[in-house]
Amino acid sequence: MNSTASFAPARRTRWARLAAFGVAAAILAACSRTEPVPAPAPAAEAAQKVRYAGYPGVTGLGVQLGIEKGFFKDEGLALEFINTQDAVSGLASGDIDIADWNTTGAIVAAGKGVPLTIVASMFRHVGPFYLVGAPDVASVSALKGKTVGAAAFGTGLDVYARTILSKEGVPLDSVSFVANGVNAAALATVENGSVSATIIHEPFASLAEASGKGKVLAAGYDYLPRFHTGVIVANNKFIASSPRLLEKFLRAYFRSNEYAKAHLDEYKAFYAKRLSVDPKVVDAAVRRELPIWANDPKVSLDEVQETQQVQLALGFQKEIYDAAKFVNLAFVPKGAASPAP
Predict the structure, then answer these.
(1) Distance between CA 45 and CA 62 in Å, rounded?
(2) Is the torsion defined by CA of 279, 255, 258, 119 positive or negative?
(3) Any bridge partners for residue 67, and if so which?
(4) Element (H, E) at 261
(5) How far apart are CA 195 and CA 137, in angstroms?
(6) What is the reported pTM?
């Protein structure tokens, strides 16, 4: 009995040690077990750069709003804005991929061999130009024998100024035309009496009326409703190498401008803040331009032909070019100008 009892504590101690060892081994095994490591998330695809020479001021506000809303980011694009007074040279050198440009300027450049193609009309392609007179000028007909600002000779602004005067019975040889610049510079020439009237863009037409220093005598689109003034052009090398990028750009461009038109209160607030213009002036300016805010990417070859004929008659163009050779609308996405959500 005594011998049996003497062995019991030893066996219990041995079993306890084995159990403790087993627990420790299990813990060590658990700690040393290799857990699966989650795969890293795929890196976001880098935005693709497009070098864009867009028009500044009001004409470019839709694109700027679209950037803020993320429409270009949605397409995987990062716009690099190129500031230039001569987009044609940048397109010819390959330093610009896409640009806003005046229609006849693009046609003439392409006709002379510059490697560019018209890929769409801009969101508005009828001239948003206004003949603004000094407060004492009663009407367009009163400008006979006066000095009139034509912005820059040979441009669309000049065409509209001369056409308005001619259609109102004012002999062009009775008027002294001066190249007085655009926007604020042009308005200043009316305010300081250097000219009796000038052709000008918004918001400066509405600013003149709000300040009492000028008044709108005529809207250019009432006189030349089919004169095509604005297109989107692309470098031919860019088109060949990056047709999908061009399509994405056009989709974002028209989505941006359609969104702006569909959300006028938001657009006008953006306009007022971005250009530091009184909201009441912005309201008048936007209301005046709604009739020509088409958001239609199509390019009418008939209108372009008529536009060249007007240029030719005024001596601003030496010959008529076959515009069909330089227009390619294949990159305009379907529904590019459909209403934005």
Answers:
(1) 26
(2) positive
(3) none
(4) helix 243-262
(5) 11
(6) 0.84
Q: Measuring CA to CA, which residue among 140, 195, 203, 200 is closest to residue 172?
A: 140
Query: For 191-225, b where at least 16 C-beta lie within 10 A, e where not — what string?
Result: eeeebbbbbbbbbbbbbbbbeebbbbbbbbbebbe
Q: Among 102, 101, 76, 63, which Cα is nearest to 270's?
A: 63
pLDDT at residue 46, rounded to an integer = 84
What average pLDDT does range 158-181 have in this prediction? 98
pLDDT at 35: 47
Domains by residue range for the chain, with CATH: 48-126+227-326 (3.40.190.10), 130-222 (3.40.190.10)
Beta bridge partners of 50: 79
Tokens at 213, concatenated? 């220093």
The amino acid present at 186, given as its one-letter code, is: A
Count of other CB atoms within 10 angstroms of residue 293: 17
